[in-house]
Amino acid sequence: MSVKTKYQAVLNLGEELKIKGGDVTEESGILKIKGQAATQYEKNLLWDKIKELGGENPSDIKADITVADESVYHRHTVKSGESLSKIAKKYYGDPMKYKKIFEANTNILKNPDMIHPDQVLVIPN
User: Fold this and answer.
1) Cut 0.70: pTM above it
2) Contact 105/122 with Cβ under 8 angstroms?
3) C-alpha distances in angstroms, 91 versus 19, 22, 61, 82?
4) Residue 62: which residues within 8 A CB-CB, separation 6 or more?
5) What is the C-alpha separation between 86 and 115, in angstroms, rounded?
6) Three-class SS of residue 65?
7) How many whole angstroms separate alpha carbon 119 and alpha carbon 76?
8) Across 14-119, where does the E strand assignment appear?
9) With DSSP H G I counted as helix, E B as strand and the rest as coil, what are the percentages for the chain, rounded to 5?
10) Which pLDDT tens digit goes with each residue over 35-61?
11) What are the phi and psi torsion angles at 28 (to 5°)?
């Protein structure tokens, strides 16, 4: 199996996340990828996928992924049925961190229990 085939799921995820300036080359059995993720969260998703396929310290891939917007962890578009605690669990693994998200979005939120589909929320670092 070629190294590119091994990491195809990483490349697919990069396309799905719309990684900018993506460049993929294979040299001497090492896959080299570079590009720019929109946020740190998206960069983390790519690294998680790399580790899932190649282990904690893969030696057959080199990834140079930069982040376009380092001022936030992510920007989340609210979907129907979501709550700040569900969103906090997704990004931080802790639903009680909903207050952190609320505080970062007081410009558009007046009540942590009132969010609406299609609102774009800042998920702070």
Assistant:
1) yes
2) yes
3) 19, 25, 26, 13
4) 30, 31, 32, 33
5) 12
6) strand
7) 8
8) 20-27, 30-37, 61-67, 74-77
9) 40, 25, 40
10) 999 999 999 999 999 999 999 989 999
11) 50, 45
Give the pair of three-digit tokens for residue 113.
């229990």
Report which of 62, 56, 52, 49 is spatially closest to residue 23, judged by C-alpha positions.
62
Cα separation, 110 vs 76, whole angstroms: 17
24: left (phi over 0), alpha (psi -120 to 50) or beta: beta
Q: State the Cα–Cα distance between residues 85 and 112, nearest whole angstrom.
A: 9
Token pair for 1: 């199996």
Residue 68, CA distances (Å) to 41, 52, 92, 106 in order: 11, 24, 20, 24
Q: Across-strand partners of 37?
A: 67
Asked if 47 and 63 touch (Cβ cutoff 8 Å), the reply is: yes
pLDDT lower than 50: segments of the chain: none
Q: Tell me, what DSSP letter sits at residue 79?
A: -
